[in-house]
Amino acid sequence: MPQTVKGVISRSKGAPVELTDIVIPDPGPGEVVVDVKSCGVCHTDFHYREGGISDDYPFLLGHESAGTVSEIGEGVTDVEVGDFVILNWRAICGECRACKRGEPWYCFDTHNASQKMTLPDGTELEAALGIGSFAEKTLVAAGQCTKVPEADPAVVGLLGCGVMAGIGAAINTGEVTRGKTVAVIGCGGVGCSAIAGSALAGAGTIIALDLDDKKLDWAKDLGATHTVNTRGKSEDEVVEAIQELTGGFGADVVIDAVGRPETWRQAFYGRDLAGTVVLVGVPTPEMELSVPLLDVFGRGGRLKSSWYGDCLPERDFPMLVDLYQQGRVPLEKFVSERIGLGDVEEAFEKMSQGKVLRSVVEL
Question: Where is the Enoyl reductase (ER) domain (predicted)?
Fold first, then answer.
C-alpha cells in the first residue's frame, strides 16, 4: 500500500524548498523502498533548485544517503529487507558496451526506479539524480542500493556522492600512488575528498589550492602537506606556486575540483610533463575552453574527466566503509553539522557561503 511521508521538494526555480507530504508507491519489479537514515546537502541539490540541471519541476531533492531497505519488489535478489545500504546514482546495467568490455564504471545505461514518487494530488516528482532522499522514505532501483557494514549513516552516506567523487578522482581516475605529487584546485567537499584519497594512496607532496583560508585549513586536516591561497593570483602565478612546491617541475597529478576554464588551465600548466589532469568539478553549459593545441601535444600526459570518481559502488563503498572503521579514512571530518529535514534551505545558504564541508540531514 502506498505510504505518505515527509520530504523536501523544489517547486519552482530559485524558490525556497518546501517540507511537504510525498507519496511513496509500493515497489515494483526491480525496485526497493528505503527508510532514509541520513542525507548530505550537496551542491547538486542546490543546482536542481536553481534550474541548473533541468526544468522538470517539482523536484524531490536529496541523493547523498544511507538507510535501511524496508520493502523489496518482485525479482530483487541483491538486497533484502533490513539491509543497511548506501544509495548510488549510477546503477550499472551490465549489458551496455562499457559493461561488456569490463569497464562498468563508465556504464552508458544506468537505471532508476520505473515508478515516480508523487505529491498527494498525483503530481509526479522528479527525483534528484534518480534518488530523492530528502525524505523519510524513498523508492529506488535495487541496483542503486549498495550493502555495506553498518556504520554511522551521516558519515558513510556521504560516499553516495561528493566524498566518493573526490576520493575516486584521485585513486581511480588520477591513479595516484605512493610518492606521487598531487595538487588539488578547490577545497570544498569534493576537493577535500580528493586530498583525503591522495593521502590514503600514499602521495608524497599534496598541495591544496583555494581562495578561502578556512577551506585550506580543512584540506590540511585531511592530508594536504602544503596550502596555497590563490586569491588575487593570476593563472601564471598559480602555476608557479605549484611548480615551486614540486622541485620546479609541476605535480604528477592535478585535480580540478572547481570546473572553470581558468582552473582547468591552471591544472593543465601546473602538471609535470606527461602528468595527468583530472576534471571532477562540474562546469556550467556556457563555459568554453581555449588552449593552444601545440601545448596539448607538447606536454603529453593524460587529460581526463572523472564521472562519480569512476567508482564501482559494489567494489568501492564497502572497501571505504571498512577503511573508515579501521581509522584509515577520516570520513567523520566531512560532517560539519547534523540537521533536520526542515533545515535544508538554511544549509544551502551555509554551503553557498563556504561555512560547511557538509551539512547532513538525520532522520
Answer: 14-361
